[in-house]
Specification:
By secondary structure, the chain is an alpha+beta fold. It is 27% helix and 33% strand. It contains 8 helices and 13 strands. Strands 1-2-3-4-5-12-6-11 form an 8-stranded mixed sheet, with helices on both faces. The protein has a 5-stranded antiparallel sheet with strand order 7-8-9-10-13, sandwiched between helices. Strand 8 and strand 9 form a beta hairpin. The radius of gyration is 19 Å and the shape is globular. It starts with a strand and ends in a 7-residue tail after the last strand.
Length: 266
Amino acid sequence: MTFEEITSNDLEELRTLGPDDWNDIVPDFEFYIRSPYCHPIKVVEAKRIIGIGSLIIFEHTAWLAHIIVDTSSRGRGIGAMIVNELIQISTVKGIKSCLLIATELGKPIYLRAGFRIVGEYTFLKRDKGWPYFKISEDVIPFEEKYRHALYKLDQRISGENRENILKEQLRECLIYVKEEKVEGYYMPNLKEGMIFANTVHAGIELMKIKYETIDKAVLPSANFQALAFLKQNGFIETATAPRMAVGPDINWEPTKMYSRIAGSLG
């Protein structure tokens, strides 16, 4: 049994490892492979991939993602081995704080590895039709002059420096600007479509755009106002999942997160 880096030659084999209730994991691993700040790994036994995972590094923090063990190889501690290997890689890279969003299956493994619960996400789905909302005139396409203000807003809310992933999405980004101040943004093509906003009004206005066409939502449970808005407009709760961390706490503001990026990035 060995740990190796995942390459593009592995993608078709990875497709068979994804749980039935997950989306296709191949696009995610294509992203990890081509992104220099990501470190996807595989566990190989008898020339077969029996486990996978990835580490995504944002300067001083990192996320563990897509930790999956083949069903025929579970119960052997392979998941714990993958977690420990990814934490070791992060330590070598000088990262002190690692985060993840846990499934019920993975939660006990992460607790044994030293992770603690630091928050919670709520999952919702559309149960009724979405009302018509007039789009605010303060929502505009991204303009270059707002780049650094957007980065600063993101870092203040997330507690992380994520410029390396945000810069790839600016062309399709929508921003909420009031009196030349960026109060929120929506990146529709960044995984599940992230919305961060410094004010409730900005966050709600951007949600009106997103959920006109999207019928699922995931956001921090602490954002009561965003959850209430969704429930008032046809969404119902379906599940929750813990946000977990190991290492020093990071200062994040869940009440200003109106839609997460994805399970792999918070």
